[in-house]
């Protein structure tokens, strides 16, 4: 598994080996020893997945302290344009985002540190997105930033999106509790 640093400190893209044979392919997405060596979280508390139709946009989501968490995310079927937005006030990339193409063919994964928002748009649907998260779901702390308020060049001006995602505050109004060293 190869690790590629991104423009967002602590956020990396992981490129696993893909083994192919007559039956199909095989990809390992988590290895405790390797993640430990790379300094990544290994203590995952929940795992879940979603399936989304073409043109669906989910995000930009995160959990507030003290339930903020690292996240490992990948796309096992279809493809998405994935976005990570840095919300850590003292980060060199605060308020900035990076885009990633996650898809079943590339089998790439994203590792997200605490203090970033995450979202995606389905470019090749249906798309299955899988997650591991380092704290359990805390509905009262699960929130987001409005998808169209952070200067992200989404490929669709009118995506399929939930009412909840439409109702999030814009980035400019969000008072961030996140810093690089943790929440304050
Ligand atoms: C995230 C989550 C949702 N739910 C419930 C709440 C709701 O009824 C239903 C769907 O929730 P949502 O609309 O938040 O699902 P979704 O928009 O897919 O949420 C996900 O979005 C992407 C961008 C992420 O980064 C994920 O961490 C997660 O926040 O599932 C849980 O029970 N546990 C969970 O951990």
Description:
By secondary structure, this protein is mainly β. It has a single domain, classed as Jelly Rolls. It is 5% helix and 45% strand. It has two helices and 13 strands. The strands form three sheets. Strands 1, 2, 5, 6, 7, 8, 9, 10 and 11 form a nine-stranded antiparallel sheet that branches. The protein is globular. It starts with a strand and ends with a strand. The mean pLDDT is 97. The structure holds dtdp-4-keto-L-rhamnose (TDO).
Please work out how many helical segments DSSP would assign. Answer: 2
Apparent shape: globular
Strand residue content = 35-45%
| CATH superfamily heading | Jelly Rolls
CATH architecture: Sandwich
CATH topology: Jelly Rolls
DSSP strand count: 13
Terminal-residue CA separation: 34 Å
Bound small molecules, by name, code or SMILES, are: dtdp-4-keto-L-rhamnose
**Average pLDDT reading:** 97
> Which residue ranges are poorly predicted, with pLDDT under 50 across at least 5 consecutive positions?
none
The percent of residues in helical segments reads under 10%
Number of domains: 1
Just give the CATH class: Mainly Beta
Write down the Rg. Answer: 16 Å
Order of helix and strand elements from N to C terminus: EEEEHEEEEEEEHEE
Outline the biggest β-sheet.
9 strands, antiparallel
